[in-house]
Amino acid sequence: MAVQKYVVRLLTVGALALALTGCVSVPDAIKGSSPTPQQDLVRVMNAPELYVGQEARFGGKVVEVFNQQGKTRLEIATVPLDSGARPILGDASRGRIYADVNGFLDPVDFRGQLITVVGTIAGAEQGKIGNTPYKFMVLQTNGYKRWRVVQQVMMPPPVDPWYWGPHPLAVWLWLRWLASLRPRTRSGSDSSNRVSNCYY
Which residues are the signal sequence here (predicted)? Predict the structure, then answer.
């Protein structure tokens, strides 16, 4: 009986790990054609003319939406991307870009949302943030992904009160797993449960 419970738990953890690794891949809509699209906005803005025509991928929060003739311009406050090309929450903005998307996008659906865009660098253009002049990198977008974020809390598995005790190896594995659920937070305090952000 105890062995069966242990095997079931082990298989469940294995299936969960496989499911989570499957979520790391970059969605087709923002893969692009280059194996390594440019993602360093600071480097591009130091010499934008050198990167014109190159493929790039950036993501962050849509600050403003401008509907223009035949296209929509998204003003994005960019942040670093993770291995799945998702904006990393909590990071400071690396700068702003204009992402031009063909067709009409409703501002209500995009303003304030997290997004990743891929396309060709078209150069830089002067604009403003409030009343302050600002140089924006312009991206001719050929793909984008709008992200929705759901927060998940993972709890440790329950312990059966009628269970006499697991195999010593199972105890070691369980304690190791439990320790991994207690990451350091930014303030330095321990978190009793793992809180993760799930994108879709």
Answer: 1-19
